[in-house]
Design brief:
This protein is an alpha+beta fold and 754 residues long. Strands 6, 7, 8, 9 and 10 form a five-stranded antiparallel sheet that branches. Strands 2-3-1-4 form a four-stranded antiparallel sheet. Strands 5-11 form a two-stranded parallel sheet. Strand 8 and strand 9 form a beta hairpin. Helix 8 packs across helix 20 and helix 19 runs parallel beside helix 21. The longest helix is centred in the last third of the chain and has 35 residues.
Length: 754
């Protein structure tokens, strides 16, 4: 693989304008496709095969609903009054009349106590709006704006009024908001420090932005054939920026150091692509495989989310090994110069000190300290991660809303919860199917049984189907849709139905939005251990092939579990318990998003293996060159720590910037990935790994003989390539210094120093 990438890198360097032109055409095609094919995003959290989803499909057939777009206006009267008194009543009546007269509005049903749309205290009411637009269409902007204007007039009259429903719950996708821009600026600052050049630092950011643009617009065009949630786009942006910058950093930093050491720029670009590029391909492949493996759990919205993010990572890898060498060709030898005066002077001073006296760098000093205090570091790190993981035992999964807490739709929902109780929006729908003579008896029995269950506020009258073979009854719980009490009530109803089914020879099932969400969360919870085992098995197999050792893969996998547990614990403490929620701008606490742990496992696994390869591969090479185990660990860590630190800081900056997004789901994703990278990179990979390697010594590299013969040599970082180039240089009679320029730059690969 390294030889192929070496040739690819040199080809892209020589044909820079052709490569740049090809990517420009691809960007243009993606933009045209997105503009022409993109359809509105929809939220789909269903899982085929669950009871609630199967039952919901039957309900839609037996009880066909209006296929027009609907919405609601939620009114709240001032303290001491009701919706029907004095000026408040007149304002409500006028608002409803004006809304009904708007073009595009077919009708408005005012709040009525008999219909259950007026709260017990008479202060809160819900008016139902029906539009002429079909559900698969888009509400005209003029209609929605006029409705919003009418509601605003009601507010000015002293009434609290908010709009809810699908037309007013659309999520505005902010691909690059202020928070993301700040994250990119932080990443740029880290790159300037690494490259000592503003021009060189801009390259990884520019290529990452191009990769995100291509990937995101391709996903947008797919909305014409696939139901896609806006969260899929945000995840693709988040991951594309982070890995795109990191992958370009690994290759470009290698290239810059080689050119500074005197290597020909074209040769350097090829060698950097063949060595560091090999590690990039491996790292990208692990992320792609882990994300694509989400399709194994058979959850449609999660499959689309994982495949969409995986596609963006593929684009980032392709850019790193094709477009990046072409862009480096535009800079030529100027890549080696520093354009930041202060950093240039610092670099020159460091070079003079290095020539005067060989001093260990910061990475080597840290690794030496860890080696001397190996057991203390190990125990303290394990205790710290273990303590952070404790809250994960209280992990509760749910599917929260995607609305901005400050939006009118969210405020409308809060008015409903305050006026009618949280259970009003968590209704459980019981469907009874059977013969025409038995359905009525079964409905009466299940209704009376449900009334006696703890936590039930009310049971609605029976709604029979036109066929007479089915009937519905709605059960309103006291608790909210995502509470444990509502989940228990759902289980109690399903347990109580068995005896009724036997006596009446009917089929009874429970559905509704709340039941669907609970079933989705349960399915995800049960699938998470299976997915973790799948990813862990993949980790062990890949690392066994890469490092050709038993202990190193086991250590890497266990370290991944530690960082995962601590990350989940931090999520529970912040988003579920509310710790530091005010500091992070989290306005509503509750269950952790049900799909977030799976995404965290898939993405964090790929990044963890990435850092593991870049750190430990150089340790292996130092040991293979005859260094004692501890010395090999120290020297190898010193070479790899700088680039891994920079890469981790960039990841944290990009992921962390999404914590300040408006949507709760995006906040959760940004926080989970940011804290996960922080813990895995700095606690596990850069603290626990050197401590464990120092403890294991030579045993870390033990491999049974039968595996030595059976395992393939994948040459991830180009050791075979370096031997071929060194041999070729001797054949053609190149000067000796040409082979010296194959020295491995800090932290990018383990090419043999021949």
């Amino acid at each position: 693989m390294s030889t192929f990438l070496y040739r690819l890198g040199r080809f892209a360097y020589r044909r820079k304008w052709s490569v740049i032109g090809a990517w420009s055409v691809l960007l243009l095609v993606a933009a045209v496709a997105a503009l022409g094919l993109m359809k509105p995003f929809t939220s789909s959290t269903t899982i085929p095969g669950t009871e609630a989803q199967r039952t919901l499909d039957v309900v839609e057939t037996e009880f066909p609903a209006d296929d027009r777009v609907t919405a609601r206006i939620v009114f709240r009267a001032p303290t001491g009054t009701t919706l029907t008194e004095g000026d408040t009543g007149r304002t409500v009546t006028r608002t409803i009349r004006e809304a009904a007269d708007i073009a595009g509005v077919d009708g408005v049903v005012p709040p009525e106590a008999k219909a259950g749309t007026v709260s017990p205290d008479g202060r809160t009411g819900i008016a139902q709006l029906t539009f002429s637009t079909k559900k698969d269409g888009t509400l005209p902007a003029a209609t929605s704006e006029r409705v919003e204007s009418v509601v605003a007039e009601a507010r000015r009259a002293g009434l609290t009024a908010e709009l809810g429903g699908d037309p007013f719950s659309k999520v505005e996708i902010k691909v690059m908001g202020p928070g993301e821009v700040v994250g990119l600026l932080i990443a740029l600052g880290v790159l300037i420090f690494v490259f000592r050049s503003l021009r060189a630092a801009i390259i990884p950011v520019a290529t990452a932005l191009l990769g995100v643009a291509v990937g995101v617009m391709a996903l947008m065009s797919l909305t014409s054939v696939v139901t896609m949630d806006s969260t899929s786009i945000i995840l693709a942006v988040m991951l594309g920026l982070a890995v795109g910058i990191d992958y370009a950093l690994f290759i470009a930093s290698r290239h810059q150091i080689q050119v500074r050491e005197g290597m020909d720029p074209e040769e350097s670009a090829g060698l950097a692509t063949g060595t560091a590029g090999g590690a990039v391909v491996f790292a990208g492949a692990t992320v792609v495989i882990a994300l694509a493996a989400l399709s194994v759990v058979n959850i449609p919205f999660l499959t689309i989310m994982g495949l969409g993010a995986a596609a963006t990572v593929v684009v980032s890898v392709l850019l790193a090994v094709t477009l990046l060498p072409a862009v480096l060709a535009l800079m030529g030898r100027s890549i080696a110069s520093s354009t930041v005066p202060a950093l240039r002077r610092a670099t020159e001073r460091a070079a003079r000190r290095s020539r005067a006296q060989a001093r260990p760098n910061a990475g080597e000093r840290w690794a030496s300290l860890v080696a001397r205090r190996r057991w203390t570091v190990l125990i303290v790190s394990l205790l710290g991660l273990g303590i952070m993981a404790v809250p994960a035992a209280d992990l509760r999964l749910g599917l929260g809303g995607t609305d901005d807490p400050d939006s009118s739709a969210s405020r409308a929902q809060k008015l409903v919860d305050d006026g009618f109780g949280p259970g009003y929006s968590g209704t459980l729908v019981v469907l009874v199917q059977g013969g025409k003579k038995t359905v009525g008896t079964a409905v009466e029995e299940i209704s009376s049984t449900a009334k006696e269950l703890p936590g039930v506020t009310s049971v609605s009258p029976v709604v029979p189907a036109k066929s007479g073979d089915a009937a519905l009854v709605s059960v309103t719980p006291e608790s909210g849709p995502e509470s444990e009490a509502t989940k228990q009530l759902l289980a109690d109803i399903r347990d109580a139905r068995d005896s009724v089914e036997e006596r009446t020879d009917t089929d009874i099932n429970v559905t509704g939005t709340t039941a669907v969400n609970i079933d989705v969360a349960d399915k995800l919870s049960s699938a998470l251990p299976v997915y973790c085992l799948l990813v862990m098995g993949l980790a062990l197999a890949l690392l066994l092939v890469v490092f050709r050792a038993i202990a190193v893969p086991l250590k890497a996998a266990l370290g991944f579990l530690l960082s995962l547990g601590a990350s989940l614990g931090a999520m529970v403490a912040v988003f579920q318990w509310g710790w530091l929620s005010g500091l992070l701008g989290i306005k509503d606490t509750g269950p952790v998003l049900s799909f977030l742990p799976m995404l965290l496992v898939g993405i964090l696994f790929g990044l963890a293996m990435d850092y593991e390869v870049f750190l430990v591969s150089r340790m292996r090479e130092e040991h293979a060159h005859g260094q004692p185990p501890v010395e090999a660990m120290v020297r190898g860590f010193g070479h790899g720590s700088k680039v891994v630190t920079a890469a981790a800081l960039i990841m944290i900056a990009v992921f962390g910037s999404f914590v300040f997004a408006d949507m709760q789901v995006i906040k959760g994703m940004g926080f989970a990935l940011g804290i996960g990278v922080l813990l895995d990179a700095f606690v596990v990979r850069m603290t626990l790994v050197p401590a464990v390697m120092a403890i294991l010594g030579a045993k870390a590299w033990w491999l049974p003989r039968f595996l030595q013969r059976a395992l393939p040599d994948v040459d991830i970082e180009g050791e075979r390539l370096s031997r071929e180039l060194a041999s070729a240089s001797q054949v053609v009679g190149l000067p000796e210094q040409r082979t010296v320029t194959l020295r491995v730059p800090a932290g990018t690969s383990h090419v043999r120093e021949d």
